[in-house]
Amino acid sequence: xxxxxxxxxxxxxxxxxxxxxxxxxxxxxxxxxxxxxxxxxxxxxxxxxxxxxxxxxxxxxxxxxxxxxxxxxxxxxxxxxxxxxxxxxxxxxxxxxxxxxxxxxxxxxxxxxxxxxxxxxxxxxxxxxxxxxxxxxxxxxxxxxxxxxxxxxxxxxxxxxxxxxxxxxxxxxxxxxxxxxxxxxxxxxxxxxxxxxxxxxxxxxxxxxxxxxxxxxxxxxxxxxxxxxxxxxxxxxxxxxxxxxxxxxxxxxxxxxxxxxxxxxxxxxxxxxxxxxxxxxxxxxxxxxxxxxxxxxxxxxxxxxxxxxxxxxxxxxxxxxxxxxxxxxxxxxxxxxxxxxxxxxxxxxxxxxxxxxxxx
Amino acid sequence: xxxxxxxxxxxxxxxxxxxxxxxxxxxxxxxxxxxxxxxxxxxxxxxxxxxxxxxxxxxxxxxxxxxxxxxxxxxxxxxxxxxxxxxxxxxxxxxxxxxxxxxxxxxxxxxxxxxxxxxxxxxxxxxxxxxxxxxxxxxxxxxxxxxxxxxxxxxxxxxxxxxxxxxxxxxxxxxxxxxxxxxxxxxxxxxxxxxxxxxxxxxxxxxxxxxxxxxxxxxxxxxxxxxxxxxxxxxxxxxxxxxxxxxxxxxxxxxxxxxxxxxxxxxxxxxxxxxxxxxxxxxxxxxxxxxxxxxxxxxxxxxxxxxxxxxxxxxxxxxxxx
Lengths: 360, 322
Known about the structure:
Chain A is mainly alpha-helical. In chain A, 74% of the residues lie in helices and 0% in strands. Chain B is an all-alpha fold.
């Protein structure tokens, strides 16, 4: 008997191969899913409009069990008994996803809705000197706080970025004996709670008296939080630099320091920028260290050692729970400014990072 | 990879004879030990601050809950706060662990690729929300809803001890604070467990499907056991974050200096990190400041232990899977 190979039937055969049985779609399956989704929604919708049950109770006590039962039936109809447990997993997985998305949308949405009302041009650049919590929104702004945040983050970047990159260079370039320990300490450092970083700087102030509360102290606290992020991200990107470049540079007679500065770091430039941006984004919203280390002020301060200074997070913190609607509106608006800052940093990091990947 | 690494390593000895390189090597090595120096500095500086606390309070600083600074002699202890931190973290974990696991299952095994990528970005965005903003949101948006949920819980499940509420005040409860912590933990746990689940060898998944397993059996006997170590590590990382969280909890938890053992929907609870910030604003003098610094030391030790364990677990499973 000869086996004939029919080349034309091959694509059809390949199409039939199903890698994921739970993704198999037949008309019965489609209709079961549609019905299992619609029926509970309609029932709960009707109860919500005409019934008198609180929303939270309706969702947990009526909708979720109803949805589970409906999906169970649908799964039983299409796949038999074993489909039922699968349907429970799927319904809960979708539920957990929706739960997380609802929270995210609620946070971002409330920031946009409530933040925009107090946002204006002068809110961005004016300071808060002649403003009390009850002052109407036409006056005052967070210019001083934005400046303070930039100053503090700048100081912390000046401290943390060189040390972080040097740590990464030690791990990937020098490759000394202590590499596992250094990585371990960097990991451990990334778990230091932000309030502890603030307390540490505070104890330095109390113990040595070398400087006082202010932008420099805040920058020091931020640097403790920024260093592990910069070091770990920089380590990842330096690892991506091919060893051929290093051996090539050494073969041409370059010293190791030159190899690092002229070959490795330029090759990883965009990745290093990503590391810096992620480090900045990590700290820019931190509040607790600044409450302890840099205090708060209503006026514009540019001297890092010039005493207590405001930053956007501490400004929000000071305005959140005040019994004046205008102060609360200011808190929402500055929260919007802060999240926009964070968002911009992340988008830049993503775009820069993507450029690095696609160029390879 | 490893062969080129050794070759490169061999080149090192030849190249380090240069004088500039020795300076470079020493500088970089010095910088690499900054992390250790900072950790040691925190331990020493804050550790020294526990001396006045233990001198005046003895071991009861760790076992009592009162905070009467102005009495003579003053009595102060952080037991209620330590316990409160753990209670909040447990409440947060109970919400966050199932949610993140299901979320990562959805992203890895159920969602189309494009949806999964979008979700990854959204989860990263969620991780990037500063805690002060989460606190602001929780104070104004979450509080009213959470108050209603807790009323319902108390009304229908009040016979279960943890859902007791005698004061009728449903704000400032460990439940709300734990819920906020859960929101912070979900992105951390999800990103770690998504990664380990996605690394399940396709051969194993295909084999279990070929043997006729359903999705549930595949998860139960292949994917979850395979990623267990990483998931546990991710949960521990989230726990470390929750224990150290300060500002968001500050806005939604009423700090009381008595132990709230289990009534998670009763107003009032404790948290070491939040105690520090809430008392710092109105600190009465050097003595109370040193008490807060001592509290910070124990917070540091607690989170350090949790994080070290978490990282060891994550690192070990990472090695096993390679």
